[in-house]
Amino acid sequence: MQPTVSNIRIYPIKSLDPVEQQEVLIGIHSLKNDRIFAIVGEDGRLVNGKRTGRVNQLQSIVDLPNNGIKLTERGKDNWQFFDLYADNPQLNRYLEDFFDRKLHLVFNEEGELLDVPKRSSASVVSTASLQSLQQDLLDYSLEDLRLRFRTNIEISGVEAFWEENLFHKPQTGVRFKMGEVEMIGMTPRARCNVPPRDPQTGETDKTFVKAMMKSRGESLPENSTLDQFGNLYHLAVDIYLPPTEKGKTIKVGDSLEIMETISLVE
Fold first, then answer.
1. Residue 234, SS3?
2. Tens of pLDDT, residues 146-204
3. Which domain holds residue 46?
4. Last residue of one domain, picked from the residues 65, 83, 107
5. What does each C-alpha distance from 79 to 7, 72, 82, 104, 208 come to in angstroms?
6. In what order do the strands lie in the sheet with 80-83?
7. Whole-model pTM?
8. Could you say which of 64, 88, 107 is where a domain stops?
9. Smallest Cα–Cα separation from 44: which of 110, 114, 109, 103?
């Protein structure tokens, strides 16, 4: 059994559509260009999937090499192109009109726009884990689940929930290498109210959480320590990328090697 990177996704604008990559550089406590923009309301709060399902209705195509973005309401074909930078008044005006509120785009490439800055630089899940959930949640395709859970790195060549070998128990991390990049598995990723939202419409499936937790309970690996983290509403593993890894590259096809468990107590 050889865990291998099979898919890499980054989300240049937090809560909007992913960009698939064959390889990605390590940035500052993050994957380069992952969650470097976010939409912020006049009240200073993020306009994201936790706050409104309207974000799911905004379709985006980001052109990273040319710093551009195309936007349309999902299901429509009236694309508009914008230069992608935080102070672009045309882009901010489009977003204000779409969400019907005062807001603006912010930029930060030091990992500060991630859900858990620094401590969680990226997330890892296995294809087999998504397939296990999909077998129980028959209303959803594999791609639908990918869009709901919004992880960065998917690995293949392992059984369902193998990635939970990348954390141990609270206050204990797992050092491992992915290709040339050394990282630390921190904790399982606690989920929020985003996965129950339809990634196309933003509508909430009120049965999703219960069904997911039932599926997880019936498929826990024998050596699982997930119960030490509060509940079964977890999927994927939060990983920390040390500053020493900046500029290195993760590629599709890279193998993963576990090194050792370490204490996370400072």
1. strand
2. 999 999 999 999 999 999 999 999 999 999 999 999 999 999 999 999 999 999 999 99
3. 37-107
4. 107
5. 27, 5, 10, 20, 32
6. 58-63, 68-73, 80-83
7. 0.95
8. 107
9. 103
